[in-house]
Amino acid sequence: MYNGVLDYLPHIKDYKAKRVSSWDRTGGNEDYISIEKGDTVTIAEIKGPAVIKHIWITISCKDVYYLRKILFRMYWDGENKPSVDTPIGDFFGIGHGIAKHFASLPLTMTCDKGFNCYFPMPFNDRAVIEIVNECDVEIEKFYYHIDYEVHRREWNDVGYFHAKWRRELTRACEEKINLTGDDNYLILYAEGRGHYVGCILSIHGLRPGWWGEGDDMIFIDGEKWPPSLHGTGTEDYIGSAWGFNREFYFPLHGFPLKGHEDWTGYHSMYRFHLESPIPFTKSIKVTIEHGHANDRADDISSVAYWYQIEPHIDFAPMLPVEKRIPLPLKSRRDMLEEIIEEIKSAEPHKLKEEPWKYTHYLVTLARDAVKTRGVDAVVRELIEEILLSALKRGDMEAVRRELVNIGSRLLNMLK
């Protein structure tokens, strides 16, 4: 009888434990391989029936964006299209080409350098693992361990492990409600039979303001809106509440990378459904809103993890390397200038509906940049004396002028 989580350990195992690694075959200490620019290298080809239980990798490469430019691919039982197809950094749990210490149950970036995966990956005939170097330089040192078990019998009624990266520069929707989910960010679309076990979600906030009002919506077997699983906010899906006030990481949920306090910059989070995977018999569509009713335009990327019976569809063909590079972080001054230009060209109805959103953008950017109460004093004076009066009169051109005036005053404070 099993009474504790480690009670299985005394039971004698009936498999052979093996490893493929980069150990130095000469007996020396050069325990790595080098991979030339543009090369694809097979680091493991394993005969089954077997199950990969642990993957450890560390990399030395001088390309700034090597974690996005190196692709990690896995093929099961002779398939032509990879079941795992993702930039290597994102696969191990954090996006934006960033390595940062965190630990979850299935994935870790230990001490920023040691990348570990504990998802079990069964197969019957053959597993092939590839590394594709799309960096501008060679990968000088690539170390790896792939620990697996060889079993006597073939696996029956098990799914193959899949992981897929996707990226989208989302567009802001003007609708105030979302009753379809059609414009949500797509994390996963799969057809067949299997179960979804989680994702990492990385957001580059391109404008100030909270992007976390987006509800997760998971559609099972072609169901229409509202789906069987409908959430209440991005941070709620990740297991937090009322936003994220710090970085954290736990076995099944975490927010290991937090950007700026105004929610611009790079952020990464994860949620794993290991305690109860989400099954599908025909299809699954995992989505999340980008802001409330998709009112945010940000740079979003993700890795979905799931198991399914083959064959699988490629719902998100891999982007070319130049489209995988993270967008650079913008200065507060650059963002202020962009918002001022947007105000100048905004339609009058948009100014009437969203004057406070623009004011919030301007104030937040300036306050974060200069760290002074003077920003609030300037804005309060201008709003109370001029902007409110123009709004009450319905004079949208005056509203435009005053928003631009506020932005220009704040811009001058950043000089």
Structure description:
By secondary structure, this protein is of the alpha+beta class. The chain folds into two domains: 16-323, Jelly Rolls (Sandwich), CATH 2.60.120.1390; 332-413, no CATH class. The chain contains eight helices and 23 strands. The chain has helices at 66-69, 88-91, 234-237, 332-345, 348-353, 355-370, 374-393, 396-413; strands at residues 16-21, 33-35, 40-47, 50-60, 70-76, 84-87, 102-103, 107-110, 114-117, 121-123, 126-133, 139-150, 160-169, 185-191, 194-205, 216-220, 229-230, 248-249, 253-257, 265-272, 278-280, 283-288, 299-308. The strands form three sheets. Strands 3, 5, 6, 11, 13, 15, 18, 19, 20, 21 and 23 form an eleven-stranded mixed β-sheet that branches. It is elongated, with a radius of gyration of 25 Å.
Q: Can you tag this structure with a few keywords?
A:
single chain, 415 residues, Jelly Rolls, eleven-stranded mixed beta sheet, eight-stranded antiparallel beta sheet, 8 helices
**Strand-residue fraction?**
25-35%
Main sheet properties: 11 strands, mixed
CATH topology of the largest domain: Jelly Rolls
**Principal-axes shape call:** elongated
Short note summarizing the structure:
This protein is α+β, with helices and mostly antiparallel strands. The protein is 21% helix and 34% strand. The longest helix is centred in the C-terminal third of the chain and has 20 residues.
